[in-house]
Amino acid sequence: MEFANFAMNFLQILTLILIISVISSFLFKNKKALISLTTNFLLLVSANVFFILQIDFILDKFPNYFFWIFALLILAYFNFIRDFYSYIKSKRSNRAN
To answer: Taking a C-beta distance cutoff of 8 angstroms, is the pair 42, 6 a contact?
Structure first.
C-alpha cells in the first residue's frame, strides 16, 4: 500500500510537470528548445528520485528488471547531456552570427 501511495503521488507530480510544460510551450513559443530541455531535466530528476526512493521495493519484487532500469537511467543521462550540449552549441552559434 505504501508503494501505491508513493506511485500515485509521483504520477500527480509528473502530471503537473507535463501540464506546466505544455502551457509554457504555448506561452513562450520562441523558447521551445529551452522548455524541452527543462522538461527533460525535470523528468530525469523525478525518475531518479522514484528509482532511489523505491530501490528496495524494486530489488525485492523485480530483481530481473533492476539492471534494465538502471541502464535506462544511465542512457537518459547521456541523452540529456547530449541535448544540453547541442542547446549550448546552438546558442553559441546564434550569438556568433
So the answer is: no
Residue 77: the pLDDT is 92
What angle is formed at CA 71 by the lines to CA 66 and CA 73, rounded to 5 degrees?
95
| Widest pairwise Cα distance in the chain | 57
Give the phi and the psi of residue 44 in degrees, each rounded to 5. Answer: -65, -45
Angle at 71 between CA 44 and CA 39, to 5 degrees: 15
Predicted model pTM: 0.81
In order of 1, 3, 40, 58, 78, the CA distances from 71 in angstroms are: 27, 22, 17, 14, 11
Measuring CA to CA, which residue among 34, 51, 40, 50 is closest to residue 77? 40
C-alpha cell at 20: 506546466
Residues in the chain with pLDDT values less than 50: none
| CA 47 – CA 62 distance, rounded (Å) | 17
